[in-house]
Amino acid sequence: MCGYTRHKPGCTATYNILNDIFMVIQRTKNRENEMENTFLTGRTALITGSTSGIGLGIAKALAKAGANIVLNGLGDLAAIESLRSEMADLYDVDVIYDPANMLNPLEISTMIAAAQQKFGVVDILVNNAGIQHVSAIDEFPDDKWQAIININLVSNFHTIKAALPGMKKQNWGRIINLASAHGLVASPYKSAYVAAKHGVLGLTKTVALEIAQQQITCNAICPGYVRTPLVESQIEDQMKVHNMSRDDVINDIMLIAQPSKRFVEVEELGQVAVFLCSSAASSINGISLPVEGGWTAK
């Protein structure tokens, strides 16, 4: 018996055969991994509020998985075009931009219709657009309250209403609503935001029940504090206001409710969204998934 040694002349042929088999298996595994990494090829994802921050991180993760992308959000048009072109080249997918205002139901429905005209259907809808205002409730400006409710909650209703018929027709779809840890717990001075995010979770559950017998899911992600350009600027502001070090602002102000004492990274949320679009998540429907370092475990 020659075993696997190469030193016996009679074993050379056996070794070569085993080596060839190993190489074939390895190449097959590499192809499977490559296919798995781009399992959303041919799908189209529309992400609101995706020209920066969390939305952009999710858009990049879905593009990396092979999905065509519809960007939406505010910003300098030249910078957005540069971003769009860069993503299309980097991930080898189609990327378009729609400037629809999330305060305008007609612009929302027109955006969905335009995406459907170009790609056939919006397979994946990520509702991420949101704004914030902090104030005591008896001093809360009426217009700020209404804008927060309309963008953070009502726009989700309009995008889902417009995109869902196409998903139903093909019997496949993924709806991901970006809620917040504040959809699960409250904080003072954030009445409109907390109300809107609690509403998002109620909407998520209702939609999930309505489409439960089809190959469509509707779930919510509930992030804690996420490291974004906006949060970075808030850290700098807090350092000046309180005359505190960066670390003290992060640990004693920003992350005081987040037991992990670290920011959630946008890349983490992107991977969560990709997972919720996978076949492994086909039976996950109607959940509110905390990604907040243990905030709501207390």
Automatic annotation (TrEMBL):
EC category: oxidoreductase
Family designation: Belongs to the short-chain dehydrogenases/reductases (SDR) family.
Gene Ontology molecular function: 3-hydroxybutyrate dehydrogenase activity
GO biological process, one term: monocarboxylic acid metabolic process
Protein name in the entry: D-beta-hydroxybutyrate dehydrogenase
Gene3D superfamilies: NAD(P)-binding Rossmann-like Domain
EC number: 1.1.1.30
InterPro entries per UniProt: 3-OHbutyrate_DH, NAD(P)-bd_dom_sf, Sc_DH/Rdtase_CS, SDR, SDR_fam
Coiled-coil zones: none
Keywords linked to the UniProt accession: Oxidoreductase
PROSITE patterns on file: ADH_SHORT
Pfam families: adh_short
Alphabetical list of PANTHER family matching this protein: 3-OXOACYL-(ACYL-CARRIER-PROTEIN) REDUCTASE, 3-OXOACYL-[ACYL-CARRIER-PROTEIN] REDUCTASE FABG
